[in-house]
Structures are given as C-alpha cells and as structure tokens.
C-alpha cells in the first residue's frame, strides 16, 4: 500500500507532439488524494496524464513520479484473445503481485468470466474488466483517462466509490474527465490550451 509521502509532479513540463506544443510549462504537484483534471477536447488532458506516466517525452521540465504507477487510458488495454481473468493475472504477475483476488474483483465489477476471450464482451464489460485493476494493482499513483466512458449508471457509481476509496487510502489518483458530478467534491484543475487555467 502506498505511503503518504508518495506523490507525483510535473515541473515546468512542456510536451511537443508532431512539432506542436501540447503542454506549456505545466507546474503541477499531486499529493495523496484525488485530483480531477477538466478541460475541453484538445485541452491537453490526455497528454498531461501520459506525461505523468512517462509515455510521452518532455521537451522541457521534469516529471517526478514513483515507479509504482497504474495508467488506464481511453482504451481498456486488454489483450482481446485472453479472458478477463487471464488479462488481470498477466498484469498482476508482471508487478509481482498475488492473483488470488482477481475472481472476486471481477465479480464485484460485474464482469462475466467463463474463460472466454474479452473480445466476446461488450464495450462496457471490457471497461469494467480494465477498471478491476484498481482492486488487483493497488499502486501509489493511479492515472485514469475518461474512465466513466461506456459505463452504465451502476458501474459509474461503483467507479466513483472506488476513486474515493483509493484517495482515502492515500493513493494519488488523477482523473481526466469532462463531466461527472460524482467527483465534484475533489480538487479540480482546469486545463485550457495546454496550460493550467485554475
């Protein structure tokens, strides 16, 4: 379980993609708890999360993140030929974690797992299977990019509760999203045209 000292930060971070500056000198320190990144399409929310995750290079500035990080992007990031439990077991084993809680996690997220490939699941079920990694990989830093997409009302309520619980446990959780009043009580950062506006 992460300690309260764990945090993530971008300091003077600038990201250029295809000769276009997407983030401009971002200074953002993320303490344990939940931070919501809001902004219009194209504001740079996804790039900010990817910069924190180390998935895009910084043209300037630096990132400070622990090695214990979970990034869940727009896509479920599941191997479609494997079952949900096989996918989660792969990720857990890669981190050196136990796999004993995978069945329970999938059950709680309402994901049917009869050994069939996730390719046979609906988009919402694949999203739920991916989000079950919140339970099976309790990382110090959790980055969620539009995690509510493709979810029904029950799953959205479950996700909001999980996000609250992760923050309460001392994990640093960063959620990039457009709406979702379920997260209105958390710290909010407004991104506009690649800069922090508020």
Describe the structure.
The chain has 198 residues and is α/β, with parallel strands linked by helices. The protein has a single domain (8-196), classed as Rossmann fold. The protein is built from six helices and nine strands; from the N terminus they run βββαββααααβαβββ. It has helices at 45-53, 84-94, 102-108, 123-131, 133-136, 153-168, and strands at 8-17, 20-30, 33-38, 60-64, 69-72, 141-145, 172-176, 187-192, 195-196. The two termini are 31 Å apart.
Quote the average pLDDT. 91
Percentage of residues in strands: 25-35%
At the fold tier of CATH, the topology name is Rossmann fold
Segments where pLDDT lies below 50 for 5+ residues?
none
What summary fits the major beta sheet? 6 strands, mixed
* Alpha carbon gap, first and last residue: 31 Å
Helix tally equals 6
What Rg is obtained from the alpha carbons, in whole angstroms? 17 Å
| Count of discrete structural domains | 1
Order of helices and strands: EEEHEEHHHHEHEEE
> What is the fourth-level CATH superfamily?
P-loop containing nucleotide triphosphate hydrolases
Helical residues, percent: 25-40%
State the name of the first-level CATH class.
Alpha Beta
Shape: globular
List the helices and strands and how they pair.
Layout (H helix, E strand, L loop, with lengths): L7 E10 L2 E11 L2 E6 L6 H9 L6 E5 L4 E4 L11 H11 L7 H7 L14 H9 L1 H4 L4 E5 L7 H16 L3 E5 L10 E6 L2 E2 L2
Parallel strand pairs: 3-7, 3-8, 5-6, 6-7
Antiparallel strand pairs: 1-2, 1-4, 8-9
């Amino acid at each position: 379980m992460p300690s309260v000292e764990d945090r993530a930060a971008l300091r003077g971070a600038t990201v250029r993609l295809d000769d276009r500056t997407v983030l401009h000198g971002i200074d953002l320190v993320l303490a344990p708890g939940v931070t919501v990144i809001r902004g219009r399409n194209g504001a740079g929310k996804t790039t900010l999360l990817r910069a924190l995750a180390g998935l895009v290079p910084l043209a300037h500035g630096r990132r400070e993140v622990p090695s214990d990080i979970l990034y869940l992007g727009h896509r479920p990031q599941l191997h479609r030929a494997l079952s949900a439990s096989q996918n989660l077991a792969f990720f857990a084993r890669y981190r050196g974690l136990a796999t004993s809680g995978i069945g329970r996690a999938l059950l709680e997220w309402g994901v049917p797992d009869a050994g069939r490939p996730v390719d046979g699941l609906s988009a919402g079920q694949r999203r739920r299977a991916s989000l079950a990694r919140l339970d099976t990989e309790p990382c110090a830093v959790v980055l969620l990019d539009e995690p509510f997409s493709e979810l029904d009302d029950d799953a959205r309520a479950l996700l909001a509760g999980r996000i609250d619980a992760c923050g309460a446990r001392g994990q640093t959780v960063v959620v990039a999203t457009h709406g979702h009043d379920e997260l209105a009580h958390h710290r909010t950062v407004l991104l506009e045209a690649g800069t922090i506006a508020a």
